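Re: weekly structure request thread

Next one in the queue (214 aa):
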Amino acid sequence: MTKSEKIKQSYIEYLLENGKEPESVWAFCKKLKIKENEFYEEYNSFVQLEAEIWKGFFVQAKATAESEDVYGGYSVREKLLAVYYTWIEVLKANRSYILKSYERFEKPITMKNNMALAEFKYSFYDFVNELLMEARETKEVEQRPVPFIMQRYPDLFWRKCLFILEFWVKDTSKMFEKTDTAIEKIVNTTFDWIGRSPIDSLLDLGKFLYQNRK
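Done, posted below.
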């Protein structure tokens, strides 16, 4: 285990055992039996440390999903589903920490900028932008005439991701089966909305008739 991983794991354990973050970096390092400067070589604060923990959960889920042989043959919609399902599995393995961390978030999390989620957000946006680029090539996302709308797609996906997180935190169903259903419905609805629709066909027809009017 690397020093950064050791610090992460010790922080998680401390939070679960004490219900709050350490009083100071010095006190935390004393308990961990490392020098204070060793902490700062990895993280500049507990806020950054927690942000890296949340990012790590997503990075782990993404890497696990992408490592599956079938992933490369998936549609963009299926790739997002695979990463979401895997992400929830990672969160399940760390649910006690997630719940304790979530308690301290400003609510609703879809409307607030919680610093603990900042690094996760950057990684998620990178992932979604890659998916959207691929989706435009495969025609799973419609090229809309108003660029501003398409530029907001990553924000839309991020809010949906936070909604899934919030739904899972509150889910009391067996094996969190309702969360799995919510993920499927959210992803399908989102892609149905940003994909080609009857309205797009109607606009194409109108454009054609206009260009070929006599």
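The radius of gyration is 21 Å. The CA atoms of residues 136 and 143 lie 7 Å apart.
Next request, please.
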